[in-house]
Design a protein that fits this description.
- With 148 residues, the protein is mainly alpha-helical.
- The chain folds into 2 domains: 45 residues; 80 residues, DnaJ domain (Helix Hairpins), CATH 1.10.287.110.
- α5 crosses α8 and α7 packs antiparallel against α8.
Length: 148
């Protein structure tokens, strides 16, 4: 049994050899305890707290698919529509990216048009203006784009 003198805990550790397994056991025990405490604390966090700690922006679960899509689209491409639509704007409206342009077919344009119209149809609460722009984009690509 070790007794601590006035110098405190230092005399206790001075009697233990420096290359002892005691240091390894102590470090392992402290690491295990810290891991358990961190795991317990993390398990009690809400999803919002976890997202805030990781700088993740939560999307409102009540938001419609249309709102989520356009919030991402407008964040990526700020600004409004051009006065006269060109091919670049038509591709952006239909969500066709650079990699898909080389393999663009009428079927891809048709499927993208259908997908965008489902998200933006005026009968489902979408904007008539956006529906018009989507239809214009499809018509423009059908007329001007050279398909493989």
């Amino acid at each position: 049994m070790y007794l601590l003198d006035s110098s405190g805990i230092e005399s206790f550790f001075s009697e233990v050899p420096q290359d002892s397994w005691f240091q390894d056991v102590t470090i392992t025990a402290l690491t295990a305890k810290a891991t358990l405490l961190a795991t317990q604390r993390y398990s009690r966090l809400s999803f919002r707290e976890v997202a805030r700690l990781n700088n993740i922006k939560l999307i409102n679960p009540q938001a419609s698919a249309q709102e989520v899509y356009f919030s991402k689209l407008f964040a990526q491409y700020p600004g409004g529509f051009q006065e006269k639509m060109n091919q670049n704007e038509a591709l952006l409206i239909l969500g066709i990216n650079k990699e898909q342009i080389l393999n663009l077919t009428p079927q891809i344009v048709r499927s993208r048009h259908r997908k965008m119209m489902v998200l933006n149809h005026p009968d489902r609460g979408g904007s008539p203006y956006m529906a018009m722009k989507i239809n214009t984009a499809k018509d423009l690509l059908d007329k001007t784009f050279t398909f493989k």
